[in-house]
């Protein structure tokens, strides 16, 4: 079976000299839930930016390797075209339009897929609100007044509104209370199962990510140093020592 996403031997440079990734290979099966883990600066965000065509806005480029989506090399396709094909990237930092309402934020994302129309919008509102009932209650509120957790839900809800086929979420748990972060991962899990949506998350919270993803990769200094089924990764001594040793990520 063709994987949803297949990255092979990816090398990324920023400017002429800064090597952010070196030989990264990652597979996301169709309908699979995969986590990309690692400390600050390991290259997690760079990997997602390479997939969604955002590197060029940061003077970054793919020097070697391929990124295939459903068998087709997408490395040279601009980000807006990738979004139309259903490759959606929820960037770190909960990008929402603060002065627009929740509904308006959601509606704006339909343009990402080049689709519009009230019937479609109504259908997708119901779908997003089904997964994020908290957003329904705040539908008429300005996004800037939502809590951090609600803003993260809105950022993911916006991507969902654009009917993704591959959803990438960068640091969904960042700055959130453990309960809210866990809720968000539970919802991602449910969406992945219900809709056969392929999901790739980037996380520093290893335990949380591996509790939900089926498979994980660990990045260190731009290279994959470990990979495997989530439970096996969690059991692996070295990983536990390095990332789960009672630190901030161990909840
Ligand atoms: N726009 C950029 N220009 C130059 N170097 C960059 C740029 N973005 C990232 N880097 C460098 O590339 C490496 C990987 O960064 P990246 O942001 O991908 O890591 P990360 O694992 O996502 O970390 P974080 O969790 O802090 O976001 C780092 O050494 C970083 O300093």
Automatic annotation (TrEMBL):
- One Pfam family recorded for the sequence: ABC_tran
One GO molecular function term of this record is:
branched-chain amino acid transmembrane transporter activity
GO biological process, any: L-amino acid transport
Q: ABC transporter domain location, by residue?
A: 5-246
For this protein, the record's SMART domains field holds: AAA
Does Cytoplasm show up as a keyword for this record?
no
* Keywords from the named record: Amino-acid transport, ATP-binding, Nucleotide-binding, Transport
Similarity section: Belongs to the ABC transporter superfamily.
The record, for PANTHER family, names:
HIGH-AFFINITY BRANCHED-CHAIN AMINO ACID TRANSPORT ATP-BINDING PROTEIN LIVF (PTHR43820)
Q: What is this protein called?
A: ABC transporter domain-containing protein
Organism equals: Aquibium oceanicum
């Amino acid at each position: 079976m063709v994987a949803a996403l297949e990255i092979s031997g990816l090398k990324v440079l920023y400017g002429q000299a800064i090597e952010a990734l070196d030989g990264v290979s990652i597979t996301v099966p169709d309908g699979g839930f995969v986590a990309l883990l690692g400390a600050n600066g390991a290259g997690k965000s760079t990997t997602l930016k390479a997939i969604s065509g955002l590197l060029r806005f940061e003077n970054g480029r793919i020097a070697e390797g391929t990124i295939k989506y459903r068998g087709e090399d997408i490395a040279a396709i601009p980000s807006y075209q990738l979004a139309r094909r259903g490759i959606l990237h929820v960037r770190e930092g909960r990008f929402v339009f603060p002065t627009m309402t929740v509904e308006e934020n959601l509606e704006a994302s339909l343009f990402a897929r080049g689709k519009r129309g009230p019937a479609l919008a109504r259908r997708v509102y119901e779908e997003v609100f089904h997964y994020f009932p908290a957003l329904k209650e705040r539908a008429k509120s300005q996004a800037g007044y939502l809590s951090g957790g609600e803003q993260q839900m809105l950022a993911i809800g916006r991507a969902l509104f654009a009917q993704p086929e591959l959803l990438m979420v960068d640091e969904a748990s960042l700055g959130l209370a453990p309960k809210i972060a866990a809720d968000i991962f539970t919802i991602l899990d449910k969406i992945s199962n219900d809709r056969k949506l392929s999901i790739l998350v980037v996380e520093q919270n290893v335990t949380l990510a591996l509790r939900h993803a089926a498979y994980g990769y660990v990045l260190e200094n731009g290279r994959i140093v470990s990979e495997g089924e989530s439970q096996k990764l969690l059991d692996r001594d070295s990983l536990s020592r390095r990332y789960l040793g009672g630190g901030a990520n161990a909840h």
